[in-house]
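Z., the sequence and structure:
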Amino acid sequence: MSTEQELNDFLKGVERRAFKRTTYAVRDEDAALDIVQEAMIRLAEKYADRPAEEWPLLFQRILSNATMDWFRRRKTREALVQNFSSLQTHDEDEDAGDLLEFLDGADNTHQDGAGEPLLLRKQTLALLEEEISRLPERQREAFLLRYWEELDVNETAELMGCSQGSVKTHCSRAVQALAKALKSRGFAP
């Protein structure tokens, strides 16, 4: 049986190397720090009762998975931003803001002489909301928790009461279904 002090000593011993490795992988020190901390917390929460000899391999696996999750989240966010960028104006005088801020303010916005672009954006957002509402319940829940609420896979899995693999599957299917539905209606990335 391992002690809390042994776990602390192990984490102190791997912290610097893990941070460097992750920084090289993601090329962002803030993100690397978050990833390493997430991996350390997962090890402490789920595997602290394991023998200390198992920790090095467990930690490396957890760190690799956390890094891959970060890349997946970034890739998905970039795809969403790219797909949704056509919903925002590109006027130099107007700060585009994010999609959710636009949704909150769209009903209250009054644009003299620019009603057509605003109408098109409102129609596009309504279409997007319609397609999201058509997703199967579990896909919609996973999609909204991961990409609108920006929860990680573990948090989403806990909230949904399923495995992390199920969350990833639901999200992947939701993104594919939304992309297909939007493409069929004339929206292409």
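The helical segments are 4-26, 29-47, 55-84, 99-106, 115-134, 137-148, 153-160, 164-184. Confidence is low (pLDDT under 50) at residues 86-99, 106-113.

Let me know what you think.
H.
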